[in-house]
Every structure is written in C-alpha cells, then in structure tokens.
Amino acid sequence: MTNEQKLKIKQLRQSGYGYATIAEALGLTKNQVSAFCRRNALSGTKAETNTKEKLDANCCRCCGKPLTQTPGRKPVKFCSDSCRVRWWNSHPEMVNKKAIYHFTCACCGKEFTAYGNAHRKYCSHVCYIADRFRGGDGHE
Predict the structure, then answer these.
(1) Cα separations (Å) of 82 from 60, 79, 128, 132?
(2) What is the pLDDT of residues 57-90, one digit of tens each?
(3) Residue 54 has pLDDT above 60, yes or no
(4) Long-range contacts: 8-11, Cβ < 8 Å, 24+?
(5) What is the pLDDT of residue 19?
(6) Which of 11, 37, 53, 69 has the most CB within a 10 Å radius?
(7) What are the CA-CA distances from residue 137 to residues 49, 62, 132, 140 (Å)?
C-alpha cells in the first residue's frame, strides 16, 4: 500500500465512506482497508449508505485522485487520459458493444459476426483473396 493510498483512505474514511467503497475506489481489498483503519483508529463509525455514487463523482475511477467538476459540462470520471485508457483496458466487460453485425461470407457461405463494421463481405482475409482472384478476370 502506497503512502498516497494511505492518505486517501484516511480522507475517505473521515468523509464517511465504508471499507468496501474505499477498497473498490483505490483498487485494494476490503480486508486491507479495514486492517489499515483499525491500526490507525479510523474504525468504529458506520459508513453512510449509498456513498458509492458520491465517491464516483468525486474521485478518479482508476487511481482515486480527487476530481474537479466543471459546471455546465458532463461530469468527468477520470483524472487523465492515461487513467481512462488503463481503466477501460482492465474492465472490457463494462464496454457496451452495440455495433455487432451478423453476416454470411460471400466466398464460403459461413455465418460470422463483426464488431463496428456494417459493410463486411468476407469472414477472413483468406476468403477475400480467394473470391477476389479466383473469379472475375480468370487469373488463378
């Protein structure tokens, strides 16, 4: 546990956050947080309920640094682009993939799916080459 994480645990615990919420925000286990709080006399008070939403709005999802929100703009969830990329790369299950398309290959007739490209014709590069150079102009 880094000194920055220890300081953040103290701040969040004094603000009324629970062990599980702090652990999730800082990427630690609940046991690590509760043990640190016991050793530093930060235990004993029951945390507020539904504090997860408040924590998400005030801290970076990746590193837990405090965020500054700009009025009139969409709320930020990450302190930097590197934190945003790191978090999304480590949480691929959270990506809402709506652009999944289903096709039939023009060469082999096999059913396949593609993400993000609504105009695919072939299931693979091999099928593309086979269909492109086999028919049409007679060069085999």
Answers:
(1) 11, 8, 37, 42
(2) 578 888 878 888 888 888 888 889 999 899 888 8
(3) no
(4) 8/64, 9/33, 9/36, 9/37, 9/42, 10/40, 10/42
(5) 85
(6) 37
(7) 71, 55, 9, 9
